[in-house]
Amino acid sequence: EALAQAAVDEFGSLSTWVNNAGGSPMRMPLSDLPREEWDRTIALNLTSVYVGSLVAARHITANAGTGSIINISSGAGTGPVPGSAHYGAAKAGTNSLTWTLSAELAPHIRVNAVAPGAIPTEVMLKAVGKEQHQLDELLDEWNIPLGRLGTPQDIGAACLYLASDAAGWVSGEILRVGGGAKPR
Predict the structure, then answer these.
(1) Which long-range contacts (CB under 8 A, 24 or more apart) does 181-184 make?
(2) Percent of the chain with pLDDT over 90
(3) Is residue 87 annotated as part of the catalytic site, yes or no?
(4) Catalytic member of 87, 88, 171, 178
(5) What is the pLDDT, as a whole number, of residue 81?
(6) Which residue of 9, 100, 115, 133 is surrounded by the most CB atoms within 10 Å?
């Protein structure tokens, strides 16, 4: 609430909101996963999207009249992810929230998601058990057709598109930004 109000106070209105919180550094079978890690992962990756979206919707409706909410999801939310089921379940929930909110908040607010592929962040590298100097190995293992790992700028560009008038008739979509690789 404080973040949304600060944006309105600074800029006069709120038109775009990106829910970009997530991750889980722990990889293990669900039968071994501590309940605390399940709860922490759901809170960080799903509950925060729910809360952020509702806060944004109130401020966009009240101040801007039209707008865009963009949720950062993951390919992990589209199929089985052995060793990261807790994260995959949270991101599948993010996808479901995206679809439902796109219907409930229309026509004044468009809601979409971006599902990043392999972006070598600190959390991602920890989750897959790699170090920065092993990025070439990761690229080979994952066989990314475009021949490189992603960058935060790749994801930012997708968000910029979804927030722009160019995406004025795009809502309820999960945009995969992954270099052509299948989701993991």
Answers:
(1) 181/117, 181/118, 181/142, 181/143, 181/144, 181/145, 182/75, 183/74, 183/75, 183/76, 183/78, 183/79, 183/115, 183/117, 184/75, 184/76, 184/81, 184/117, 184/118, 184/142
(2) 72
(3) yes
(4) 87
(5) 87
(6) 115
